[in-house]
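Lab meeting notes turned into a lecture example. A postdoc, R.K., suggested we walk through two folding results consecutively so the class can see how the record format repeats. The first protein's sequence and structure tokens come next.
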Amino acid sequence: MWSNSKFALCLLGIIIFFQSCEKENLKEKPSDNQVFSIELDSVVVSDSLLLSVLKEEDAYRKMTKAGRIVDISGMDVVKENPKKVYAHYMPWFQSLDYDGYWGQHWTMANKNPNIVDADGKREIASYYYPIIGPYSSNDPDLQEYHFLMMKLSGIDGVIFDWYGSKDLYDYDLIKQSTESFMARLDDLGMEFSIMYEDRVAVDTYNSGLASSVVDAAQMDFQYIKDSYLSRPNFLNHNGKELLFVFGPNTITNTADWDSIFSVFPVNEEPYFLTLWAAQNMVGSSASGEFLWVAQDHLLAHDYYYGEYLDNNLVTVGSSYPGFDSFYEDGGWGLQHDWGIPHNNGNVFVETLNYTHHEAADFVQLVTWNDFGEGTMLEPTEEYGFLNLQLLQQYTGVTYVPEDLQIVLDLYKARKEFTGNYEVQYYLDRSYRKIKKSKMNRARLILMAVNRFYGS
């Protein structure tokens, strides 16, 4: 059961502060018996029923081949909370089984994922372990799993962490990975935006790939304009596309940003949001600021919202589960001498509740999968579905953690039956049922597959 008294204590009075936002405010959190995973196959279902399910899906295949059925892209999710929610997403992982090597965000300087402990966990550069194990951002199965998890949690889209358009370091790999998600975004009806890391412009210039830092950034923004902003599902706010910069950290002259933004036609410039307390470096090109994880935690939220309530700027609520940097232990040096404990979901609840200000136009979840900094919301061995369960309550979707387990089971089946095209057809059908919110049918298909094709 869920405990209102425990929840009230963990919020430290925040509910009282935001009592006028009753519709969106989280009322309770899971008890200490938090949801890790759910064994769906524990329900007894007869062989005859499961066989009939497979036969019905086979009949659908024949109808499809006859051209009588057309699948329509998109996935409609009903949410009680109208506030838009976007997940900051890291498309920078590579895995041995998919890419042929382990990428640096799993290894950092001193970790070897080929080392497996007695519990079957690989050695990775994080204090937390993804419930599916380390993965590749380019893997279509991973993309299906991540984005279905998001949809069932009420997430409307993603903000990709993006490192420019040039083939330098792993920047081009990140760009390619970002673009590999586009078909899945389209199929599930999700929006996306770009978070530009302006320090890459300095790297591009120093590598001789641009005549100046400004020229490097201009080329990146031209690429963004040509390749992303024209897509119909690019994040749009009040009729304008919306971009982000993580900083700026290296381009801090307003005249330089004026030159960079000259790639956009007059009166067609997108909204451009900087890190909080940084818009003055961008000047007239800036449209607002977004909050990030800060050492002073909730005091930063107080300052941010207090500063912005009376200003006509785009304001982004920022919510995160905690902060636990692995950089020093991973051999990349001490980059943070502070942390914010996850505190069994309470930090996520606290920061979600700060987004109820009317001035918060939408929410950025920080982050979906930054394992190196310990801000990930995707299911982990340590927290299971806890954070997504809290998010489901916040967004007011009709889905429950048992539905998240169906998506996890779909991912596991994708991997178990790789190369088995007959089974993959049934898994495709399970995916389509999830898209249509027919969760019980999706579950039965998975149960049938495991019953008759599993080892």
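The second example is placed directly after the first for contrast:
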Amino acid sequence: MDHPHRPHGGGLTPLAVDRALVAPLLERCDLPPPGTPVDCAVSGGADSLALLVLAVAAGCRATAHHVDHGLRDGSAAEADLVAAVADRLGAGFRSWRVEVGEGPDLEARARAARYAALPEGVLTGHTADDRAETVLLHLLRGAGPAGSVGIARSPRRPLLDLRRHETEALCAALDLEPFDDPSNADPRFRRNRVRHEVLPLLTDVAERDPVPILVRQADLFASVLDVLAEAAAGLDPTDARALAAAPLAIAGEAVRTWLRAAGVGDGDVVDGAAVERVLAVARGERVATEVVGGWRIARSSGRLSVSPPRPWQDADHG
């Protein structure tokens, strides 16, 4: 639900942004031209606050959008923080309330609810650190070349070449106090363990910062993926014989593209195990299989078909 927020008067002084402070950061951001209206997802953390500051500094007509998931007492105070910063920057502000109850896959459900509420094309404050974490998470899932890209480069993610310590330093320089979400330290979420345990260990083992290395690898895989996608475009993934005969990398990319287009996984990366099960159906090693979230792949008369999950239908893993 959309909750319009009245501008904050409150005697706040305008937030002065020194051009010399933001210029080196803006050179590494992919923000649209001055005067462009942009919507920014702003949680109140350092990355998203920096996104709003930099969008305004770039001359964009920015509106901050805050989503309250209703998971913590006092979460409305986070919206007030974002509204105050937006007011001082001369940016617009809107708040949204979604209901996400506790339970399995909380992080994924909260993300889905958040993006369902936010306007289409909203900018996010993802940084190089987020991308490195995502690369590792996807590799652990066996997601293949698409997963190895991590967070793909996009005009919607203009801060992808900035580091988290830079967004934090920008907030500190402007005397902004980001909201520290306690869930970012919760070990129930695998990303937090990658952030607080795996990456520090890799830093120690490699004796260097692994984030730039992972980002370079992600960009390399993005270029590889472009080549694979071009090759896979000529392959019909529903033709079982053609799919089984194709080189594994090309067949795998054709399957992933097909499943994504069908809505399998709701936009998530389809892992390697799911792709292999589909290829086993194409090779005639099994009649049907389930992939992500109960979606079913079946073979009939040499053709593969995909169907959505049915609560009453048991998985056929034969």
